[in-house]
Amino acid sequence: MLRVGEHFERTDTGMQRRVNEDAFHARAPLFAVADGMGGAQAGEVASGTAVEILSAGIPAGSEPVDRRLAELVQSANARIHELSVSDEDRAGMGTTLTAAWVGEKEVVLVHVGDSRCYRWREGHLERLTDDHSLVEEMVRQGRLTPEEAAIHPQRSIITRALGPEQTVVPDTLTVPARGDDLFLLCSDGLTSMVPEAEIAEVLASTGDLETAGRALVDRANAAGGKDNITVVLFRLEGVGTSAEEEAEMTRLNMDAVTAAPVPATAAAAPVAARAPRAPREAGKKRGWRPGIGTVLIVVLLAVVASGAYLASQAVYFVGSDEEGFVTVYQGIPYELPAGISLYREDYSSGLNIGQLPPAQRRTVGEHQMRSLADANDLVRQLETGRLGVP
Questions:
Q1: What is the pTM of this model?
Q2: Cα separations (Å) of 355 from 56, 60, 95?
Q3: How far apart are CA 382 and CA 327, in angstroms?
Q4: What string of DSSP letters covers 228-290?
Q5: Three-point CA angle 65, 71, 76, nearest 5°
Q6: Over the stretch 311-329, which tens digit does the pLDDT of each residue have?
Q7: Residue ranges of the chain that CATH labels 3.60.40.10
């Protein structure tokens, strides 16, 4: 099963624009970039509306994800169009939208305009979306070469966007994915300034997403920064349950994680009488030396403590973080004195616990011990609405 292991996002006004009309969403399992048009506030409204409607309607239940995403794009288009015709200051506004939904074995894309989605896999950069622009249409028709399109005076004219028309038909694409795939969503403020070969060079130079993301934005600005620049990067990882993990889950009894205290009713062992010690010679000092019994007790306690800690790291539970988002934690849901936690965050989803029915909220709040695969499966069921708890 796939999940988002890490992500990084950054948006920048660029060197020549006064405001930033780009918008993005970056919360697993949904990532999106929108590039607004129509001037200052109008462009911001269009891109912000598109991202808001898309992120609020995360697919649920058994309906096909691509169909649901397409419906959300059409709803966003209708709303943006309604706003544009009802307000003269927003007349003609619109936005691009490129979004990626991470499923269990694939990534589903929905796309309108000239923002893009790329996949970086094993040193190869692949563009997954087609620009809805005048020059790209001409390239596909064989009337322009890619090199000619890059410098064409009408390269900024897009042929499809959300808002200008009453209806829009988005492209949808389901891409098989695997662990370690890296996806890049970006507005054309990046791709119009930085060639794809240079983007690949940046991604090849570092495995750190923040370093790569900042470098891409910096290069776009160094090349002129003629437009707003938005970059969203996310890397996938495959998760599952190993035979060793299942065996550990079967063996581990969470009630016995901490060492049991000695019962208060235990009888004290009789103390044998000792002969008095001979006095030490004058001038000689003797420091305290632990006896072999003390050493064994210390070693035993250390072994028990380390064993308990290692055992706690073999299990997971589902809860919610400080912001209310459903989260997978590694460890056990306990804290020791001095604020020492026996758990750490492993994965945070894009689902807020406030969106769940009461029974499902209780399921999250139970903090039941699970294997990593079971914990991820529960989160996935909650995200998609498949959990059989009303």
A1: 0.72
A2: 10, 12, 28
A3: 11
A4: -EEEEEEEEEE----HHHHHHHHH--GGGSSPPPPPTTPPPPPPPP-PPPPPPPTT-------
A5: 125
A6: 556 788 898 887 778 889 8
A7: 2-238
Per the model's pLDDT, the better-predicted residue between 388 and 356 turns out to be 356
Structure tokens at 297: 């007790």
Rounded to 5°, the CA angle 69-70-72 comes to 65
CA atoms within a 13 Å half-sphere pointing along the CA-CB vector of 292:
0
pLDDT digits (tens, 9 = 90+) for 99-118: 999 999 999 999 999 999 99
Pairing state between β 340-352 and 116-121: unpaired
* First vs last C-alpha separation in the chain: 25
> pLDDT tens digits, residue range 170-187?
999 999 999 999 999 999
Instruction: Tell the residue number behind the tokens 């009461």, with chain if given.
Output: 358
Strand 97-102 to 30-37 pairing: antiparallel
Q: 177-181, 279-283, 340-344, 361-365: which has the highest mean pLDDT?
A: 177-181
Fold for the domain defined by 2-238 = Phosphatase 2c; domain 1 (3.60.40)
